[in-house]
Each structure stands twice: as C-alpha cells, then as structure tokens.
Amino acid sequence: MNEDFYKGLDVIFLAAMLLNEAGIIFTWKIAGLTQKDSYVRIVSRKLRLTPTNLNIQFLGKIDSSALAGLLSHANFFINSSYIENSPNSVCEAMVAGTPVIATCVGGVPSLVVHNHTGWVIQEGDYTMLAGLIASLADSPEITTSVAAKGKGIARKRHDPDRIAEKLIGNYNLVLGRTSQKTAHEPVYRTSDI
User: Fold this and answer.
1) In terms of domains, do 86 and 180 share one?
2) Residue 115 and residue 145 in contact, taking contact as beta carbons nearer than 8 Å
3) Domain shared by 165 and 153, yes or no
4) Mapping DSSP to helix (H, G, I), strand (E, B) and coil, where does residue 31 land?
C-alpha cells in the first residue's frame, strides 16, 4: 500500500476494529507503509484509532522475496482501494495462491470473480470486509479451493510465453503478415474459469 488516500486505509482500520470487537485473533500486516507515515497518522487521528490496538502492523518497504514470503503465509490478501485500474498487487497475490478480497472498482472485476477466484466487496464497505474475513476464517476448505482457482487463472493470464505469442500474433496481423488463429484470442477469457 502507498500513501494515497484512495487506497482505503480507513476501511482496513474500521474492519480491524470490528474484527477485534468480535474477538477474532489476527495480525493485519501492511507492506509499503510505516506507522510514522503522514497518511497513517492522518487516518489514525481522523478515526481516533491506534493501529497497534487494532492488531495492524506496518512493515514499511519490503523487497520482492519478503513480499512473496508474506503472501505465501497470509490467510488473505486485501485490496481496499476506492479507485483502481488493474492492480498488480491483486495479480501477484493470485499468482502466489493467496485468497484475495478486493473492492469492486476499476479493473478488479476483470481479475477476480466473486466466490470463484476470490471475493469482491463494495468500496468503503468495512462491515462487509470484516464479515467476509470472519466467515471465511472458519472455512479453510473454501478459501483453499477459491485461492487455487484464482492461482490457476492468474498463472495462465500472466504466462509470459502465452502473452508473447498473442502479442506477436497481433503484431503480425496488423503488419499483414501471417494470420495466426490466436491473434484475436484474448490472453484471458471469462470462459477460462
């Protein structure tokens, strides 16, 4: 997460508050920010909530291998943004096989199919987020199955050889060279799921 107000840190704080009130034991780890960042302090002050009291741990900037390690051990990857395009973070979590919960904004619905390859919630809906986390925390067979489907789709969608083949086919088509049957075929189709 970075220091952009549209990233939904307030949603995380409020969802964590509800999970704590429900007696759910968790640690919410956030990479990219520190507790001293102005964005964190502003949200904390505005909501009158302290991250450490909410079991939120800020990890700061971490390298790719540390991030991969976090994703491989996480129960969920949460994207709480109010605005997005097609977030790389969601794609990376899916490729890693981490169950994804993301807000239904921008390109997210083209990446995550609700209850099939992950879960989508309305942006800003911290009660839905907390409720979904609480209900899924007791259903490891569901989260494992959905994460596996998400991983399969994401690995296919982001396969470098497949992407290169499609790209070269499209360039050849535009240049009037060979007409590959795969040139018009998208890299990822909803029917793939």
Assistant:
1) no
2) no
3) no
4) strand
Mean pLDDT in the chain? 90
Number of domains in the chain: 2
Count Cα atoms within 13 angstroms, Cβ side, for 133: 30
- pLDDT exceeds 80 at position 22: yes
If asked whether residues 129 and 173 sit together in one domain, one would say: no
pLDDT (tens digit per residue) in 156-172 = 999 999 989 888 988 88
Residue 186 has pLDDT above 70, yes or no: no
Pairing of strands 77-79, 119-121: unpaired
DSSP string for residues in 64-131: HHHHHHHHHH-S-EEE--SS-SS-HHHHHHHHHT--EEEES-TTHHHH--BTTTBEEE-TT-HHHHHH
pLDDT over 80 at 178, yes or no: no
- What is the residue range of 45's domain? 5-157
In sequence order, the β-bridge partners of residue 77 are: 100
CB–CB of 54/12 below 8 Å? no
Structure tokens at 94: 């899916």
Q: What's the whole-number mean pLDDT along residues 8-26?
A: 97
